[in-house]
Amino acid sequence: MFKVVNWMIVSRSQMLIDLLECRWPQEFLVKLTNAHPCEMGKLLSTSPNSMVIFDLATVDVQQAYQLQRIVEREHCGVRTVFLNFPKQVDAKFLIHPSTTAGVFYVDASLKDIGIGLNEVLKGRSAIPQTLYQSMMNVDNDDDSDQLTIREREVLHALLTGRTNLDIANQLFVSESTIKTHLYRAFRKIGVSSRGQAIAWAQTHMHEVSV
C-alpha cells in the first residue's frame, strides 16, 4: 500500500502556498499542510509530518529560530528546509546539522528547489556548498560552543535593559549584527527568548569578564 508523505509549509504568503500546492503534491507525491507560524507547534503535534519547510520571506528569522528549536527538541525524525534564505544577513545559526535538510537562497528558482528536494527525498542534504563550508569554519573557530567576546558583551548589555538598537549604537555596529550575535548566543546557552537569555545572564554573567 502506498504510504503518503506529509510535508508542512510554514508561511504567511497565500500566493506561495497556492503555487506550491499546484506543483509539489504531483512532483514529489506528498501531502502538504499549511501552517501559520503561530500554529506550527500545535499542528505538528497532531499530524504526522516528515518535513517542515520555512518561508523566510514571511517568517521572521528570530521566530524561525524558535520554531526550529521546537522541531529539534520535540519532533525527532522531522527534517527542516528553509526557503528564501537571506544572503545579506548571517543566518547560519538557523541551521542544525541533525535537523536541517535543505537551504535555498532567495534567488533560487522553483526548478532548483525541486532538484534539491529530490536529493532530500533520497536521504541527502541540499545545503549550498559555500554555506556548508562557512558553517564548518565557524565551528572550527568557535570550539566547544563557547561564547565569543562580542556575544558576551551583547548578553551583558541585555541586563541593562537596552534595546538592540541601543546596543548597536554602543558597540558601533548595525542592529542586524546585534541580532545575529543574540541568535548565536541563544543557541549556545540553550534559550529561545530574550527573557530566558536575561535570566541566564543574571545567573552566569558574574563569571564572565566583558
Can you walk through the features of this model?
With 210 residues, the protein is α/β, with parallel strands linked by helices. The protein is built from 9 helices and 5 strands, in the order βαβαβαββαααααα. It has a 5-stranded parallel sheet, sandwiched between helices. Helix 6 packs across helix 8 (175-189) and helix 7 crosses helix 8 (175-189). The longest helix has 15 residues, at 14-28. The chain is elongated and about 55 Å long. The chain starts with a strand and ends in a 6-residue tail after the last helix.
Index terms:
single chain, 210 residues, alpha/beta, Rossmann fold, Arc Repressor Mutant, subunit A, five-stranded parallel sheet, 5 strands, elongated
Write the layout of secondary structure elements.
Blueprint: E1 5-10, H1 14-28, E2 30-35, H2 40-46, E3 51-55, H3 61-74, E4 79-85, E5 100-105, H4 110-121, H5 129-141, H6 149-158, H7 164-171, H8 175-189, H9 194-204
Parallel strand pairs: 1-2, 1-3, 3-4, 4-5
Helix pairs in contact: 6-8, 7-8
Share in helix = 40-55%
Tally of contiguous helical segments: 9
CATH-level-2 architecture of the largest domain: 3-Layer(aba) Sandwich
Our Rg estimate from Cα atoms comes to 18 Å
Average pLDDT metric: 86
CATH topology of the largest domain: Rossmann fold
Number of strands: 5
Number of domains: 2
Q: Give the ordered list of helices and strands.
A: EHEHEHEEHHHHHH
Biggest sheet, spatial arrangement of strands: 2-1-3-4-5
Low-confidence stretches: 139-144
Largest sheet: 5 strands, parallel
CATH superfamily of the largest domain: Response regulator
By helix and strand content, what is the structural category? alpha/beta
